[in-house]
Design a protein that fits this description.
Layout lengths: L3 E4 L15 E4 L2 E5 L5 E12 L4 H15 L9 H8 L4 E2 L6 E4 L2 E4 L8 E9 H5 L11 E6 L10 E6 L5 E5 L13 H10 L8 H10 L3 E9 L3 H11 L5 E5 L16 H14 L4 E7 L4 H11 L4 E7 L9 H6 L8 E4 L6 H7 L4
Parallel strand pairs: 1-8, 3-10, 11-12, 11-14, 12-13, 14-15, 15-16
Antiparallel strand pairs: 2-4, 3-4, 4-5, 4-8, 6-7, 6-9, 9-10
Length: 361
């Protein structure tokens, strides 16, 4: 899958390729200004698929997960499990081109890949977008869009792109064990918390993020969870009061890998994804928030050394009862003081730091 960058112009849209049994999901993204600050570069990303109700495939996947992680036979029969596993059983639609209405233009997006995902980058003049954006509390504004449907198809598949100015403050936040309890180091508990139980918010994190949103901070949720879990994860975040933001999750297909591969190391993926965010907004200041369960301290520490002018701080939720003086953190945060790299258990501990960072040059 690759991003196609072009100047958006009005096109003659043929009959929609979205069939009545297919579903389109648009993922939340953020636009950035080009180098000259006169055009918005607008990413559109999503998936097109046909929901799969085949009970045989569901039973086989249930059996595979149970055997792979030693779950009790009755555990995968919960309603939560049935809802979440169904997201891995869809028929991804390959080679589909979706037409959207955006910024007064009709635009044809890049073809979907074999995994059903599609991604394009459009360009619009800054002045044109300023007339069409919708202002939202705590955000710089958003640009709405919707898929073009067949005349007889009254469904609405819509999305919006956050317009994120070149200067400002952003939080890059992990999800598992940072804003919700997952118990990543314990793979059996991780599977249960992913597939069998309601998602549970980490105490105090929503309040911390809400205050930052009121101050104008933008949010980028970066997680190694698969894209199939976007819907329950975003619903959980909204229900618990976490601010709207972009999502970057990991590509995963049952056809290409084993179920255990879903829970492999996230280090290379996270490193590359956050590098991309820093590159797109080189004049913004970032705070990286994660947890001590896996490799967030090491990943974030390395990124902070590479981007000293952009990364204000690395904040790690301590879920492993370690001390910042332990060798792990001495190595991970080498070259930084405790103002810039911190372990915390209660998010309220961080409020004085955010007060200082608000006035950072």
């Amino acid at each position: 899958m690759f991003a196609l960058i072009f100047v958006a112009i009005a096109v003659s849209v043929e009959e929609s390729q979205i069939q009545s049994d297919e579903v389109v999901t648009f993922y939340p993204t953020a636009a950035h200004l080009d180098r000259n600050l006169d055009e918005w570069v607008v990413p559109i990303r999503g998936i097109i698929f046909e929901p799969e109700e085949d009970s045989l495939r569901r039973r086989l996947l249930i059996s595979l997960i149970r055997r792979s992680f030693g779950l009790k036979k009755a555990e995968p029969e919960t309603e939560i499990f049935k809802q979440r596993v169904r997201l891995f059983l869809v028929d991804n639609e390959r080679g589909k081109q979706i037409d959207i209405r955006i910024a007064g233009s009709l635009v044809r997006l890049s073809k979907s890949g074999s995994n059903g995902h599609f991604q394009s980058e459009l360009r619009f003049p800054r002045d044109q977008v300023a007339k069409l954006q919708i202002d939202e509390d705590g955000m710089n504004g958003t640009l709405p869009f919707e898929a073009i449907m067949k005349p007889q198809d009254k469904r609405l598949f819509a999305g919006k792109v956050q317009l994120l100015e070149h200067r400002g403050f952003s939080i890059v936040s992990d999800i598992d064990d940072t804003i919700k309890h997952s118990e990543v180091p314990d793979k059996k508990e991780l599977v249960r918390n992913t597939f069998l139980r309601p998602f549970k918010a980490a105490a105090g994190m929503a309040k911390l993020y809400q205050q930052r949103a009121r101050e104008g901070w933008a949010f980028h949720y970066v997680s190694a969870s698969p894209w199939q879990l976007y819907e329950p994860l975003s619903s959980f975040a909204a229900k618990e009061g976490f601010p709207t933001g972009t999502y970057d999750l990991r590509l995963f297909r049952m056809k290409d890998s084993t179920i255990k591969a879903m829970f492999t190391s996230s280090a290379p993926y996270k490193q590359q994804t956050i590098q991309g965010l820093l590159k797109r907004w080189p004049q913004r200041r970032f705070v990286l928030i994660g947890d001590s369960g896996e490799k967030d301290p090491e990943i974030y520490g390395d990124l902070a050394r590479q981007h000293r002018e952009q990364v204000l701080a690395v904040l790690i939720r301590n879920v492993t009862s370690e001390a910042i003086t332990d060798k792990r953190y001495v190595d991970a945060f080498q070259g930084f003081d405790q103002i810039h790299c911190q372990l915390f258990t209660d998010p309220s501990e961080l409020e004085p730091c955010f007060e200082k960072w608000k006035s950072a040059p």
